[in-house]
Design goal:
It is a single chain. The chain is an alpha/beta fold. The protein has 21 helices and 29 strands. The chain folds into three domains: 261 residues, 3-Layer(aba) Sandwich (Rossmann fold); 189 residues, 3-Layer(aba) Sandwich (Rossmann fold), CATH 3.40.50; 171 residues, GMP Synthetase, Chain A, domain 3 (2-Layer Sandwich). The strands form eight sheets. Strands 4-3-5-6-7 form a five-stranded parallel beta sheet, with helices on both faces. The protein has a five-stranded mixed beta sheet with strand order 12-13-14-15-16, sandwiched between helices.
Length: 648
């Protein structure tokens, strides 16, 4: 496989010049960019970047939503041997300082005024950042900062350069080798500075092709690119596999129009983390709350059939003729319209990853005829390690190792991976690289799990997070916080959860309510509230959340291994956990240690038997202002259940 991303792009342009490569919705209308037009745009951008001084092996930062011209910028940088570094567009300026300085970045391409402002703000701490180009000129007419220019100006400069040196671009692309560094992704690590994960063209293209082969992807797929490009999951699905397969990537008009755009495009290949599937289901359930009695009754009866029959049909199993007829009727009346409403009527393959998905949530989508499957991977493995085959999707596993992957378990239960897609290194961090890569090429995933009898990988938790209860009735029992948190988050009323219990007698939890779902629930009951903090503290809301937690406890009691992880006490936090406050990563993973330290007074109150605790917390607003949120938080006990003993 002697190829690179720019070479793949040029192959598509030569073989299918007028086929659409990218679409973008602008002013409500979908605009297409053909492979031939993309190749021309990349050529001019590459020449412009080279003329501006970008050299082979140097890094260039890209900060934007998914936009065709941003994909073209990444290809342009790779065409001349430079390395694009996508960063999260919703991060605050200070979060860019470490990656920009660490990678010695002198140039950035950003989307709009908001990102320009962040880059200009950074020039004190990143003085080497000399050139900034922007795609959207709105609001920037009167900016005159040195080195600031539009992407259009860069294209024009590149066009002139190309006219003078017509062989330059082709010669530069020809110089590219599979082992060259293609991209660098900064992990949103839950502790310390992020690490730059270095990937070559070979590692990314190899895994993209392995995933495409596994699910028989072709150039006829339609994909909606709506997740942050800085996340490797989005990059693999909407960049690496896009260039490997040649399918069409569609970019939404904005984050607020994704649901509408999803319905209009009707993707055939879809990827989302569990929180997106949770959000879609929450929306459905809220709408059903507002439905009339007959419609609600019909939905409930149809879903009973779907839960009983749907997963079996999806797995290709035999179903009785009566149930098959009932399901067909439900499909006509409920499931089909519901899939269409979710924008998934054409989905052939849907994946979720990043966090474990609740079994009920997983079953819901498969029961209504959506081929939702789970995959396992990480930034360091170029995503694709394990995938679930069609007809073998299980809620409690993440699939089987795919082509080229080997898995073994360390003595402590940690999953080790060997794969052609492993990172080259952590940039400028040989110590961290040596921690995760063994001399004989095995990667320490940091996850604890095991392979079941069918060869499917089952993840328990992060190896470092799996703890033990100490003292009490469950002394020495395993405590898996993320497993508990994921079970809690299945409920539409619970947006986030943080479980504590390691080295303690029992488990306790913080909960964030889902403002939309609980707000709708409260309005139905004529329960007035004056914002998140007020609603979160209502006695009725506490009873609602306690009911959810008790259902999780009953479920945990049925698992002898995790029965000790049942939640004994909880509180509902007075504010939503926020990445801007350092409580979540940019991919919305809970920073449990940071939260435990920040809210130590609340943790102590949970374990100290108190019934309430006053707290004041500083928060960051989107415009950069700081404020304080305070509340007297209730603490509530929860019913726990004896472990269910299985019959011998």
């Amino acid at each position: 496989m002697s190829t690179t991303f720019p070479k793949l792009m040029l192959e598509h342009a030569a073989q299918r010049p007028q086929a659409p490569a990218l679409r973008e919705k602008e002013y409500g209308i979908w605009q297409s960019l053909s492979w031939a037009d993309l190749a021309t745009l990349v050529r001019h951008l590459a020449c412009g970047l080279a003329q501006a001084g970008l050299q082979r092996g140097q890094h260039i930062v890209v900060v934007a939503e998914n936009r065709p011209r941003m994909s073209a910028v990444m290809l342009a940088a790779q065409s001349i041997g430079a390395i694009p570094v996508p960063l999260y567009q919703d991060a605050v300026a200070a979060e860019y300082a470490f990656p920009i300085n660490n990678a010695e970045v002198t140039m950035a391409v950003v989307e709009d005024q908001e990102q320009v402002d962040k880059m200009l703000e950074l020039r004190n701490s990143c003085p080497q950042l000399a050139r900034i180009w922007y795609d959207d000129p709105r609001g920037l007419r009167n900016y005159d900062a040195p080195g600031l220019a539009s992407l259009d100006a860069l294209v024009e400069a590149g066009r002139a350069f190309d006219a003078q040196q017509p062989k330059f671009f082709d010669e530069q692309v020809a110089l590219g080798k599979p082992e060259d560094v293609a991209s660098m992704f900064f992990t949103s690590g839950t502790t310390g500075n992020p690490k730059g994960v270095v990937h070559t063209h070979f590692t990314l293209i190899d895994r993209a092709r392995a995933g495409a082969s596994f699910d028989k992807l072709t150039e006829r797929e339609e994909v909606l690119a709506y997740l942050p490009p800085a996340w490797i999951g989005q990059n693999i699905f909407s960049y690496a596999q896009w260039l490997a397969c040649g399918y069409v990537v569609n970019c939404p008009e904005s984050s607020s129009t994704v649901t509408i755009d999803l319905k209009e495009i009707g993707p055939t290949y879809y990827f989302a983390p569990p929180r997106v599937f949770e959000g879609l289901l929450t929306t459905v359930m809220i709408r059903m709350e507002d439905a009339g009695r007959l419609k609600k009754w019909l939905f409930q009866r149809a879903m009973e059939v779907a839960r009983r029959v749907g997963p079996a049909l999806m797995d290709g199993k035999t179903v009785g003729s009566g149930d098959r007829l009932k399901y067909a009727l439900g499909n006509f009346l409920i499931y089909g319209p519901l899939r269409n409403s979710l924008g998934m009527s054409r989905v052939r393959v849907a994946y979720t990853a990043g966090e474990a998905i609740g079994p009920d949530l997983f079953s819901f989508y498969r029961s209504i005829g959506i081929n939702l499957k789970q995959l396992y991977g990480s930034t360091e493995t170029a995503v694709f390690v394990c995938l679930q085959p069609d007809h073998e999707a299980k809620a409690d596993t993440v699939g089987v190792p795919i082509d080229g992957v080997q898995i073994r378990l360390a003595d402590n239960g940690e999953i080790m991976v060997k794969s052609p897609g492993l990172l080259k290194e952590y940039y400028k961090n040989p110590a961290a690289t040596a921690e995760v890569l063994t001399a004989d090429g095995w990667y320490h995933t940091g996850d604890a799990g095991f392979l079941d009898a069918g060869g499917h990988l089952k993840i328990i938790d992060r190896a470092k997070d799996v703890g033990r209860l100490k003292g009490g009735a469950h002394d020495g029992a395993m405590f898996a916080p993320k497993y508990v948190e994921n079970k809690l988050k299945f409920f539409p009323f619970i947006k986030e959860a943080v479980a504590f219990g390691d080295q303690r007698e029992r488990a306790c939890a913080f909960v964030n309510i889902d403002m939309e779902a609980v707000g709708n629930w409260a309005e139905k009951r004529n329960l007035p509230y004056a914002g998140y903090t007020d609603l979160a503290g209502k006695a009725e809301v506490y009873e609602l959340i306690r009911d959810c937690i008790e259902k999780v406890n009953a479920d945990l009691a049925a698992d002898a291994l995790l029965a000790g992880s049942q939640v004994h006490r909880f509180l509902v936090l007075h504010k939503e956990l926020d990445a801007d406050d350092g409580e979540l990563t940019r991919t919305r993973k809970v920073k449990r240690g940071f939260i435990g330290d920040r809210y130590k007074v609340l943790v102590d109150a949970l374990y100290g038997g108190q019934s309430s605790q006053y707290i004041e917390t500083q928060v960051s607003f989107e415009d950069g202002r700081k404020g304080v949120v305070s509340a007297d938080l209730k603490i509530m006990d929860v019913k726990v259940f004896p472990a269910v003993k299985k019959a011998a």
